[in-house]
Specification:
488 residues, alpha/beta, six-stranded mixed sheet, 6 strands
């Protein structure tokens, strides 16, 4: 079913046909001239014009018919009436046309409102559906992104776990290898001399140093050179470090520490190093805490860092080497930034001696009075001790005389029931044999079975247990003294 034409469309079609009719009339009557107002007139103006024209044509016909019989006044009245009627008719037509246009506009407005409400409802439904669709799409995209991120994180964690498991396996293998080496070395140590033990310590320190620098270093053994140390560690960046490794227990100050200091002085004078380190793998360094860092200067004024380490674990030596290299680089940067000029060694030594003498002499003069007072107090104390010792000596002599008289007159007071040595030896043997059988020390006499008689004859289980403990302590002390003699 076709949609009815609207009033505006009908009016537009009529005005277009009206303009075409006027153009046709002008083409057939060249003398006829029409103004632009007639071409641009609307439907209301055209209706008024037709009404006026109709009245005019009627009046013309009346004038033509009654021209001879009517007077001029009558014609004027008739024309006035005609004009009034034409104006009334035109006003009625215009009012009716306006009412019709208003009703048409009201209907059109209602239709537009209904269409607007329909479109608004449709747009609201479409907007809601679009928002719902957009929300679903956003949620889906977020879920996809989260799933993707989760999958990537899972893959990364899996790779990390695999890497950690592999690293753990490698570390376990390395630990097993080191444990095997440690067990093997423990078996060999009692039969090795100090030179072999020192070589093992040097190889260990060399291996850890190479790992600390990731292999980017050269390590040369210079232990056989005169007045030298164990290793010379160099890197492409200019790091030159002499490393002294000690694997003895205990360290001797005059044999190990002072020698290390003398070797450092020679190396600095010959400009052979810019860093140094003393590494003790077994015993603490005498009078020097582990981690102590001191500085010396060469003839050019460059500070030389010296580090003392008691290595109780591999990371200590690893981080110590890396730290010493960083400190040496800072010393070099500070030296270059300062721009100090070289100082002759003789001038530097003279300056140092002057400073030392200036510090020592006032201290010596200041301590004379204190030392004098201290000696006087010591002499007074010694005299007091001598008086006390003399009194105690007299007392002891008197007690000794009383003891001698008691031995002469009442000898049974000093008699003691001694247990024969063979009974004690037998009891100790029974105790050790029973311990080897049970895997632990006996707790009562019943544990010895038929051999408990030997324990009872030796003085009882408590006395024998004390003898066994003392004997074990004596054996352990003897073994430690033998091991110390071997280390020396």
């Amino acid at each position: 079913m076709s949609k009815p034409l609207s009033r505006d469309k009908i009016e537009n079609d009529f005005l277009r046909q009206w303009k075409g009719l006027l153009s046709t009339i002008c083409e057939f009557n060249p003398n006829l001239k029409l103004s632009d107002d007639i071409y641009s007139a609307n439907t209301s103006d055209i209706c008024i014009a037709f009404s006026v024209a109709d009245k005019c044509f009627s009046q013309i016909r009346v004038n033509t018919m009654d021209e001879t019989s009517k007077s001029i006044e009558y014609k004027i009245e008739v024309q006035k009436d005609a004009m009034k009627d034409a104006m009334t008719t035109a006003m009625e037509i215009a009012k009716r046309t306006s009412d019709e246009q208003g009703a048409a506009l009201e209907l059109e407005l209602q239709r537009v409102k209904i269409q607007y409400e329909s479109l608004n409802s449709q747009m609201s439904i479409e907007q809601n559906s679009k928002e719902a669709l957009m929300e679903r799409n956003i949620r889906q995209s977020i879920c996809n992104e989260l799933t993707k991120i989760h999958d990537e994180e899972n893959r990364a964690w899996k790779l990390t776990i695999e890497h950690l498991e592999k690293t753990n396996t490698d570390l376990r293998n390395d630990k097993q290898v080191l444990s095997d080496k440690y067990e093997e070395l423990n078996k060999k140590l009692p039969h090795m001399n100090m030179t072999a033990i020192g070589n093992i310590g040097e190889e260990f320190a060399q291996s850890v140093t190479e790992n600390a620098f990731n292999g980017e270093c050269d390590i040369v053994s210079v232990a056989k050179e005169a007045h030298s140390m164990d290793h010379l560690v160099t890197t492409p960046s200019g790091f030159k470090c002499r490393q002294e490794v000690k694997f003895a227990k205990p360290l001797k100050k005059d044999r190990d520490i002072d020698k290390f200091h003398r070797n450092i002085e020679r190396a600095i004078e010959n400009d052979e190093i810019n860093a140094s380190m003393l590494v003790s793998l077994k015993a603490p360094i005498p009078n020097i805490p582990s981690g102590t860092l001191i500085f010396k200067e060469n003839m050019n004024g460059l500070k030389i860092p010296i580090l003392y380490l008691h290595v109780q674990s591999i990371p200590v030596l690893t981080h110590g080497m890396v730290l010493l290299k960083k400190i040496q680089e800072l010393c070099l940067l500070e030296h270059n930034a300062r721009g100090s000029e070289p100082m002759p060694r003789e001038v530097q030594k003279a300056h140092e001696e002057r400073v030392i003498i200036k510090d020592i002499i006032p201290e010596l003069l200041a301590n004379i009075e204190e030392e004098k007072n201290s000696l006087i107090l010591q002499l007074d104390h010694i005299q007091h001790i001598r008086d006390i010792s003399q009194s105690r000596l007299t007392k002891l002599q008197l007690v000794e005389q009383i003891k001698d008289k008691l031995k002469e007159n009442i000898p049974w007071i000093f008699e003691t029931a001694t247990i024969p040595e063979d009974l004690l030896t037998k009891a100790i043997q029974v105790w050790e044999m029973q311990r080897d059988t049970d895997g632990k020390d006996p707790t009562n006499l019943k544990a010895f079975g038929a051999n408990k008689v030997h324990i009872e004859r030796a003085g009882g289980i408590v006395y024998v247990k004390r003898l066994v403990r003392n004997r074990r302590k004596d054996n352990k002390r003897l073994r430690d003294e033998v091991n110390d003699d071997d280390d020396v």
